[in-house]
Amino acid sequence: MTRPKVVIDTDPGVDDAVAILLALASPEIDVIGISVVAGNVPLGDALGNACRIVGLSGRSDIPVRAGAAGPLVRDQVFGKYRAIGIFGDDIVAPATMAVDTEHAVQFLVRQARLAAASGELLTICAIGPLTNVALALVQDADVARGIGHIVCMGGAFAALGHRTPWAEFNFYADPHAAEIVFRSDIPMILMSLDVTCQALFTAEHVDCMRSRGGKAGAAIAGLLTRFDRSDLARYGRAGAPLHDAMTVAWLVEPSLFQMRPAVVGVEVGGYTAGHSYADFHGQTGRAAKVMLATGVAEAGFRDLVIDRMARYGKRSAGGGG
Ligand code: BDR
Ligand code: CA
Fold first, then answer.
1. From atom 2 of ligand 1, which residue's Cα is the shortest distance away?
2. 8 Å CB contact between 137 and 184
3. Hey, which of 18, 176, 294, 310 has its CA 20 to 30 A from 154?
4. 169 touches ligand 1 (CB under 6 Å)
5. DSSP string, 78-112
6. Choosing from 149, 162, 176, 243, which is the catalytic residue?
7. Radius of gyration of the chain from Cα atoms?
8. What is the pLDDT of residues 95-131, one digit of tens each?
9. Per-domain boundaries in the chain
10. Cβ 9 under 6 angstroms from ligand 1
11. 84 vs 42, 141, 170, 216, CA distance in Å?
C-alpha cells in the first residue's frame, strides 16, 4: 500500500510539536511539508518553533512554509500558553534550517492540484486555526478535488470548550475559516476535545518520554513541564491531554478510535462565535461527511506516542542524532 502524502498545517505550540515528531517518526505516512499558521503564538514564533522541531527530528529535508499571520475576519487571539513564545534555546536548539520562500497557502494549492491530476489524493493534518486551509479552498474550487481528507483537531461537543465555555481554541481563533472548511465537500476526520481529553499524560509518562526519547524526548518533556497543563477539576484525575497528536495517531493507527458520522458546523458570529455543533440525526438535511472521534483507547494512544518518541532515542544511541 502506498503511504499517504501528508501536509501538516500547524501553529506550534507544544502539542503541535509532539504531533510533528510523532508524524516524522512514523513510516506509515509520508510528510511532504509543514505549513504554519498563527494561532497558539504569533506567526514568527510558530515558524521558528516548527523549524526547531523539524531540525530536532533530524528531518531538515521537510520544508517549512509561512502561511496566514492572522484570522480571516475576527480579531486575533492567541493560545492559553502564548507566553511560551519561541521555544527556549535551553529546551530546543535554535533551527539551522531556513523557512521555504513559497507561501504556505500557495503550497497547499499547488500540492492539491498535483494530487488531483495524479489521482493520489493529499491528506491535510490540520492542527491549528483553519485559516491556511480555508484560504487554499477559496482560491480555486479545484483544490478540494485534490484533498482526500482533512484530519483536524478542533471543536468541542459534549465536552465544554476550554478557550471559552462554548469553544475550543482552533475554532474560536478562526471560526470563519472553520466554517468554510466544514462547508466544503472534503471528507473530514475530527478530533474534538470530547476525545482528546480522554487520554491524559501524567508526569510519569512525560518522564518516560524524557528517558527513552533521546534529544527529542528530553525537549518534549522540557516543553511539557514548562507550564502546569493538568486540570484536576476538569479531568477528575492527574495528567494533561496532547490534543494535536491524536490526528497523527489516527493516520497511523485508526483502530485506536471509535468514530461516528456527523454533520459539523461552526458558529461564526456573535457572543458564541467558535462554538461547534454536531448533527448525528440528519436534522440539518446536509450529508454527514465528518467522521467524529467519540472514543480512544487511552493506553494504546499513549503507548504509540511514547514508543514513537523512543525511536528518536534509539537513533541518538546509534549516533543518528
Ligand atoms: C488546540 O488548541 C491549541 O492550543 C492546541 O495546539 C490544539 O491545536 C486545542 O484546543
Ligand atoms: Ca495546535
1. 169
2. yes
3. 310
4. yes
5. --TTGGG-SPPTTTSPPP-SPPBSS-HHHHHHHHH
6. 243
7. 18
8. 889 999 999 999 999 999 999 999 999 999 999 999 9
9. 5-317
10. no
11. 11, 37, 17, 18
Find out whether the beta carbon of 171 lies less than 6 Å from any atom of ligand 1.
no
Residue 142 is predicted with a pLDDT of: 86
Q: At what angle do helices 245-252 and 298-317 cross, to 10 degrees?
A: 90
DSSP H helices in 239-297: 245-252
302-318: pLDDT as tens digits = 999 999 999 999 887 77
- Cα of 10 from ligand 2 centre, angstroms: 6
Determine whether the shortest distance from the Cβ of 16 to ligand 1 is under 6 A. Answer: yes
How many A from CA of 115 to the centre of ligand 1? Answer: 28
Burial of 185 (0-12, 13-18, 19+ CB in 10 A): exposed
User: Which amino acid, 97?
Assistant: M
| Fold of the domain built from segment(s) 5-317 | Inosine-uridine Nucleoside N-ribohydrolase; Chain A (3.90.245)
Q: Is the peptide bond before 79 cis (omega within 30 degrees of 0)?
A: no
The cell 507550564 sits on which residue? Answer: 227
Please give the distance, rounded to the nearest whole angstrom, from the Cα atom of residue 319 to the centre of ligand 2.
31
CA of 235 to the centre of ligand 2 (A): 20
Provide, rounded to the nearest whole percent, the portion of the chain with pLDDT above 70. 98
- What digits encode the pLDDT tens for the residues 238-294? 999 999 999 999 999 999 999 999 999 999 988 999 999 999 999 999 999 999 999
**How far is residue 262's CA from residue 212's CA, in Å, rounded to a whole number?**
39
| pLDDT value at residue 321 | 46
Active site residue 243: yes
Side chain identity at residue 127, one-letter code: I
Task: Tell me the pLDDT tens digit for each residue of 202-252.
Answer: 999 999 999 999 999 999 999 999 888 889 988 999 999 999 999 999 999
Distance CA 244, CA 20 (A): 9
Residue 163's CB is within 10 A of a number of other CB atoms, namely 18
